[in-house]
Amino acid sequence: MENQKISFRATRPDPRVFIFMSLTVCLLSFFLHNRELLLGLSILLAIVMAVLELRKYAAVFAIVSILGYLLEHALMQLPTNGVVTAISLLLAIAHRFLPLIMVGVIVLSRMRVNEMIVALERMRIPNLIIIPLAMAYRYVPTVRRELVYIRENMVMRGLHATIFGMLRHPMEAMEHLLVPLLIRSSKVSEELSAAALSKGVDANGKRTSATDVRFRIMDAGYALLCVLTAILLLWLQDYDFTGRLSNIIGKE
Predict the structure, then answer these.
(1) Whole-structure pTM over 0.90, yes or no?
(2) Is the four-CA dihedral 227, 231, 232, 234 of positive or negative sign?
């Protein structure tokens, strides 16, 4: 029987590209104050999702971002009152945080935790940062699964498990969701800590990896594209591109 070479291929792009993209999107969400540019950032992230074969998420987030922008624009045409101001404020906050949610979905869906640890160690990041980050990275999907299990138990018990039912009885819904989640969270954290220790996360020696994690030329191109996109969006904001375009359309 001939010996066959087993190849462990790393995901592409490199985990450092995902980390750099997350930092770039966080900075852009903080510095951009133009609604059209925030919408453009959300659409660009939806395109990235589609390229990474997250087409369902891409379609949902693109539709939500466009509808939110149109609704916010429509509210600006209404007379100002307390309700309109409150809804506009909530939409503005959601519009600013939507890119952060989108990049979080991309990272959680496409970046493997073992490759992330290897990549951060090669960047000489101390374990004091790597270990909590890896634990948090694994904790989020676990909590999401626990919420699904809790909701299924609520359905079996005939409790308010639908969104409409939760809105009608918010206090009961919070009690039925949060109490089991808090109890399970403590148990899940202990299980994740034991699993991490059994895998030698706190080992002092140099870690090896069966996966070939390397920063290639294509990864550098992805990072450069992130930088150029951020520079373009910031330049459009300083140039007041949307304001000038509105003036041109108004003159015509």
Answers:
(1) no
(2) positive
